[in-house]
Design goal:
Blueprint lengths: L1 H33 L3 H39 L1 H28 L1 H9 L5 H10 L2 H17 L4 H20 L4 H25 L15 H20 L2 H8 L7 H37 L2 H28 L1 H9 L6 H15 L2 H16 L4 H25 L1 H26 L8 H28 L6 H21 L7 H4 L6
Helix pairs in contact: 1-7, 1-11, 2-3, 2-5, 2-6, 2-9, 2-10, 2-11, 3-6, 4-5, 5-8, 6-8, 7-8, 9-16, 10-16, 11-12, 11-14, 11-15, 11-17, 12-14, 12-15, 12-18, 13-14, 14-17, 15-17, 16-17, 18-19
């Protein structure tokens, strides 16, 4: 069983890597074709609202639907679980249609919030055309939740690759204009959704057929009770997608685009590593929770946090110290000039600070969702969201677009620290942490990173990473090798957490 789980996790991480790379190539092509200018600023600003909505609702679906679906399937069989699926799909679809109608009626108001009183006809047209994309995005995420609940992790990832490839082809082969960006956005989202529907039909998933006249049964009420607090929390944590654009409208041209490119770049390790681990983790934790195996559940969470940290730290170090070289190599071509490279690299540094916090929050929050305890992560999300907004208002005045990125990193790091603190307090009677071995692990981790950072400064002094792609890759290769060598020397993987962190079986 463990071998199968490890194999599945490895395949999911590999496919997620391919998916994220395709998404990253998408950003590269977008930067090449449009650069960091007014057109890209406008498009990414308008796209932020559909992304905001899909992140909120999609997050609720992925985190609330899966545990309840699996619990129903385990207790009452596939028939009840499939009926639950159909009801949630219908409710989601009706809610999205109503939301889209409301947004279309408020197009002028939304335009003024984003662009001020001087909003143009072209900007309003872009808003009207792009806003409905949230319907396609959320339905795709719903089907993704259904696939994940059935431990079919591959198809949703493949659908994302297909979507990214189509988007790339459209903006390459058609003229540079807002209309092309609209066609690429809508067309790629439609194809992704159709692919998922096709695969759902192939796997004989029940999506539409409801074999009851009563929508609000016990399982749906449980979903609402679990989902509404999460919805509230997500509204706050994902709000930076919108208010960053609003706060950034007075910044120099290209600021919004630079923030978007930098965010996508720093989300790459989070999306590949943390998302891959947490996607598989949620299903396994939900099953353990339904069986009452809390001891194994907790061990899996701490093991995932440890592995995620060890994998991400060298990546974070490279992105912090080689941000300009990375941005230049990846983006600087076509319409993306040296000034855009400088702006984006500065934002990369600020966003990189929050990579670990974002990733570990993603992993740790799974234990709360799996045990259907949403109040704590929701409260944490609300507080971190408010903190993000306050810091953004303060820092944007002093640091421009970098202030917006830094505010986000500080708030997501706070979110993880707060969740970890509450988790340890809540489980103190069942979770006995051996201070000696915990301190030893932290010491070894700090020693490993200290040597690695020292090596970075030494290597940079000999080989300038900004001088060319070969120098850069040699720098990265040496840094990774030194980090791995320190992991072996310090025996960072040698601590038996099963024995020392969880001394008592419960």
């Amino acid at each position: 069983m463990k071998k199968i789980l490890k194999f599945t996790t490895a395949i999911v991480i590999l496919l997620t890597f391919i998916s994220k790379i395709s998404g990253f190539v998408r950003e590269q092509v977008l930067a090449f074709q449009y650069g960091a200018n007014e057109i890209s600023d406008t498009y990414l600003t308008v796209l932020s609202l559909p992304q905001y909505i899909s992140n909120i609702i999609g997050g609720v679906l992925l985190s609330s639907f899966v545990p309840i679906y699996l619990s129903l399937k385990e207790r009452e069989g596939p028939h009840k679980a499939n009926n639950f699926t159909a009801k949630i799909f219908s409710i989601t679809l009706c809610s999205l249609v109503g939301l889209n109608i409301l947004f279309l009626l408020c197009t002028n108001f939304i335009g003024k919030i984003y662009f001020g009183d001087q909003v143009t006809v072209e900007q309003l047209f872009l808003i009207k055309m792009v806003l409905p994309v949230q319907l396609l995005m959320v339905l795709s995420l719903f089907l993704t939740a259904k696939f994940n609940a059935n431990k079919l992790f591959y198809e949703p990832i493949i659908s994302t690759v297909i979507m990214n490839i189509l988007f790339i082809l459209i903006i390459i082969f058609f003229s540079r204009s807002s209309e092309t960006l609209i066609a690429a956005t809508i067309g790629s989202a439609v194809i992704q959704l159709l692919y998922l529907f096709y695969k759902a039909k192939t796997n004989e998933f029940t999506i539409f057929k409801i074999k009851t006249e009563n929508y609000f049964t016990k399982d749906v009420k449980e979903f609402v009770l679990m989902g509404v607090p999460m919805l509230i929390g997500s509204i706050f944590t994902q709000a930076f997608n919108v208010f960053d654009k609003v706060l950034g409208k007075g910044l120099p041209e290209g600021s919004i685009a630079s923030l978007s490119y930098a965010l996508k770049l720093t989300q790459l390790p989070t999306g590949i590593i943390a998302m891959g681990i947490s996607t598989v983790l949620l299903s396994s934790l939900s099953i353990l929770a339904s069986k009452g195996e809390i001891s194994r559940l907790n061990r899996e969470v701490f093991k995932s946090i440890r592995i995620t940290t060890i994998i991400l730290l060298p990546i974070i170090a490279i992105m912090l110290f080689y941000s300009y070289a990375i941005t230049k190599i990846i983006f600087e071509r076509g319409a993306f000039g040296s000034s855009a490279t400088q702006m984006t690299s500065e934002a990369v540094i600020a966003y990189t600070i929050g990579i670990l916090g974002t990733s570990l929050t993603m992993v740790l929050s799974r234990v709360f969702f799996a045990t259907k305890n949403t109040i704590i992560p929701v409260f944490s999300n609300v507080v971190s969201g408010i903190l993000n907004l306050v810091l953004a208002i303060v820092l944007v005045k002093k640091l421009d677009h970098v202030g917006l990125a830094l505010a986000n990193s500080i708030s997501v790091s706070f979110n993880f620290i707060f969740l970890l603190f509450i988790y340890l307090i809540k489980n103190k009677s069942r979770l006995s942490v051996n201070l000696k071995y915990t301190t030893e692990f932290i010491f070894k981790l700090l020693l490993t990173m200290s040597v690695t950072i020292g090596a970075i400064y030494f290597i940079k002094g000999i080989l300038n990473p900004n001088a060319g792609i070969i120098n850069f890759f040699i720098n990265c290769l040496l840094v990774v090798l030194i980090y791995l060598l320190m992991v072996v020397i310090t025996r960072l993987e040698g601590i038996n957490y099963k024995k020392y962190v969880f001394k008592r079986r419960f």
